[in-house]
Amino acid sequence: MRTSRIRTAALAATTAALALATLTACGSSDGGDDAKGGAKRGGAVVSDKADGGTSGGSGSAEGATVDAAKGSGSSEGTTVGASKGNGSSGAGKGTSAGAGQGAKASSAGVRACDGQEISYSVVHRFAKQRGEHLLITATNADSKPCYVTSFPSVMLGDTVSVLPHSTKDNPGGGKALTLKPGGKVYAAVNLFTDSARTHTSSDLSIALQDHTGDTGPGVGQEAFDAKGVPSKFTWSTADVTNWNTAKPYNF
């Protein structure tokens, strides 16, 4: 009886071992199917527990991918987007939209300032001193950017001749200087009294020039001193510097 019980116990143990091996083999086979399914849903291995069966639909796929990606922060973000089916497409949409808008803005370019959007101020600096000049400040008062180039077209007082470009000016007048809304550029009218024949005035006319030298509409201005008082200036000859983003003779 004792021997029979040992044999019976041994047989039962053997049977249990075989059953366990069979179950293990089945579990391994199911894991392989899950790996294939996971690859189709963003490359993550989806477990039976996370998948919730084949009837889980898109919601179970999302939960499964998150569960499988817990081991890596970067993997989680990638696999969640892939499982949802709209993460990567959403990113693509955002990228293409941004690039398209940038390309459109770049291809359209910035328009040239026509003078209607520009406001001017003129300050008479270093009166009757060496380096005497009129500082012209042009401000873009529009809500859109535009650009200026070359130097302003200036007539002083009641004269009808446009002042020439300064021969001592720095090069670069051919560049287009973009003025954002509220942006400023500067130019200087150099005043010289090198002969007995002189002119005196506090008025001048300013207009913009384009790359071809064409001049837009002129705007009448009055020169003021540093205290905001109208200031008369005297000249026998004068010339103009290029537009610049920094104040000329700012010393």
TrEMBL record:
Keywords: Signal. Residues 87-101 have a biased composition (Gly residues). InterPro entries: DUF4232 (IPR025326). Residues 29-103 are annotated as: Disordered. Residues 113-194 form the DUF4232 domain. Residues 1-21 form the signal peptide. This is DUF4232 domain-containing protein. It comes from Streptomyces flavofungini.
